[in-house]
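Quick one, T. Sequence first:
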Amino acid sequence: TQALTTSFLDVVCLSDGVLTPIGRIRASVVPVLKGLKGITVEDDSLLLTPATTLTALFADIFAEVRAKGLCPTRSPEPLDVRDRHGNAIAQADRALFRVLGLHTQAVRLVGDETFPQSIPLGKRSSVKRVGAGLWDNLAAGLVGAGETLTEALIREAKEEAGLTIDPDALFYIGSFEAEREDTFGLLRETTHVFKTTGALEAPINQDGEVEEFCVTHPEEALARIEAGTLMPEAAKALLMALAH
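Structure tokens:
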């Protein structure tokens, strides 16, 4: 977690009659949303009181911030919005999550039965908005709406590396939290780290998000972390897995 350099307000919603903190928004973005029905600014909070559903209100907010260029431009991708207990209470487009500082769940695959003697890495595409050209774990991504952690990891492994993962061969290593400012707001994320207990075939990128793959060893991986050539979350995942 990094110290915030700009001013943020808490995002609070009314869910089942209970005020629930769900995110944080830059104070500079708040005036853009004041005219929307269901939005109230109270003290240091942005209160969401939807007229119909919370999902519908998020859609209205998304349309407003997208029109003002305050969120990334990307293909539609719904994610679950969760309360502080991890319960899904609504859905919103992925591009809105950093703007409202909504919590995301991510999954990462660090290797197979040969880990840590062999550590596979993928180099992120030079056109990616975040971490272009940095090295990353073999497969990584966000958990989509309605997905389990296992389902998300199996999907990401197929999309990014062409790998078919047996869910019974997945071994859960652990998780860590991250919070830092992003171009469009605040990243607040729990990352879940896995490896497989069986062997994996050679990875082949399927979606253009990875430029190349390589296989390294612990000493070289640690040197890359020290040099800052790995994504921060990839580095944390590797360090957690190596210490496991």
